[in-house]
């Protein structure tokens, strides 16, 4: 997708490990045409020393699409950024926000906020290696460092290396003692830090992330900053995205119903199951359990698509049967 035809980053779905894989992203794209999608975090080591095709492969329908990288070696990140461009990604994003201890052992993620010059060096190396956007996703602070000046200083240092887009999770990352889940819930949200960052650095593109669940909340944030990144709500309640294109991009194309989304997904499922890559229906079905959230019959949909005995050796017909069950029909 050329820069001229790419939509703005008004709305995006956050990179979520083990969740935003290519199956989820294809499904999400059936609901919203313009929302930016991010890969789950992929380490530089996995790409450079593992199965690059497995980690980088995507469907052209997924654009606009960003690859999120985890790493702290400028040379390795540069090589991966170049590969991201060669594979056709629209953006490469550096993870400076993940607080998990496993990630810290690899010397990347949120702990890198303590080394803003290293992050700047990484960004410069990546920008020198590729022609696509290089962005950074980070927290507002780490551990007990809660001063606004800390996040502003971090952003200023990285911006000096040429980064112009920052995705800010408006919580501190607690590096010891909290699980990743607790790190998404316990540190208080300080949205006003992100707003202030945009006010004081208007030349930068600032996106906000953290605890955002509704269209009303999204509207409030977009009055203050450039874009909103939604995480788990877009996964557990994916049909929330059905309103995004008209509301935030001015695209009034007919919104597919939930049933139509299922219908549109069937050819993809058939292709994936017959491609010889080892894909099974369960690999796709787990990402679509929330499609009928809030609709009578949603429990039947979830039950059928998470039943191991039904999923075993199943094909697209199970999706049709589950859809029929939502409406009390028999197939």
From TrEMBL:
Site features described as Interacts with tRNA, chain residue numbers: 95, 181, 184, 299, 302
Catalyzed reactions per annotation: 5,6-dihydrouridine(20a) in tRNA + NADP(+) = uridine(20a) in tRNA + NADPH + H(+); 5,6-dihydrouridine(20) in tRNA + NAD(+) = uridine(20) in tRNA + NADH + H(+); 5,6-dihydrouridine(20a) in tRNA + NAD(+) = uridine(20a) in tRNA + NADH + H(+); 5,6-dihydrouridine(20) in tRNA + NADP(+) = uridine(20) in tRNA + NADPH + H(+)
Source organism superkingdom: Bacteria
Enzyme Commission number(s) from the entry: 1.3.1.91
Classification via InterPro entries: Aldolase_TIM (IPR013785), DUS-like_FMN-bd (IPR035587), DUS_fam (IPR001269), DusA (IPR004653), tRNA_hU_synthase_CS (IPR018517)
Residues holding FMN: 15-17, 68, 137, 169, 209-211, 231-232
Keyword Transport tagged: no
Keyword entries, A-Z: Flavoprotein, FMN, NADP, Oxidoreductase, RNA-binding, tRNA processing, tRNA-binding
Active-site residues per Swiss-Prot or TrEMBL entry: 98
Names of the cofactor(s): FMN
Domain DUS-like FMN-binding: residue ranges: 13-319
Family indicated by similarity: Belongs to the dus family. Belongs to the Dus family. DusA subfamily.
Protein name (Swiss-Prot/TrEMBL): tRNA-dihydrouridine(20/20a) synthase
